[in-house]
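Model it.
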Amino acid sequence: MSEDPKVSYVLPTHNRVEWVAESIQGLLQQTVKEVEVIVVDDASDDGSLELLEWFVSRDPRVKLIVNQKNMGAGESRTIGHKAARAPIIGVTDSDDFSSTDRTEKILNWFKENPQSELVNFGYVAVGYNNEVLEEFPGLPFDEKLFKDTGGIVHFSNPTVAVKRESVLQVPYRKEQDGKTDDYQFVEDWIKAGKKIDFCPEIIVGHRTLPSSIMAAKRGFRPEWAVKR
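Modeled.
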């Protein structure tokens, strides 16, 4: 295996000890092995750190950055992006899981679309026990809808793959003014004159929990809450 990763996955996490191991494991079990997983622990106090240190001790592809105070998802992502070594970054959430061919599909996209800077893939919403709740192969990002209404329904942050040089030019920022980090990122990306490309292939199982932003926007059905 080459020492240089082809894709860097940046995974910010805060108090996700129940889910983060599954997220990391899925990234390590890719069909393409030349990956690195940069975990940015955002001052967790639920035992996550011990688990993350165990992963670091077991696999050199896992890198751990620990925030001494809670920075929020946006700033944590950018901290990880700056540390990434690969030319392509996979945006990742700590309670989601990846298909084993996620890296392969990302690399194929940029090989076939060399001018692309950012691509948004499809996903499935999953519940507590990984049961598929709903499939979102998605639609191309609607820039007019976003500018007219602020709607980002066709943008799934946990499936994004972006060129490192581009996301360092337009970084994720700290959540403010009631806007999530991904919403602010889309605003900044569009203002910079950049394009959001789309591929309908599904690469992520996106955890939909009662406390999640997605649940608040789409509605959370009680029958989804089958606890472990």
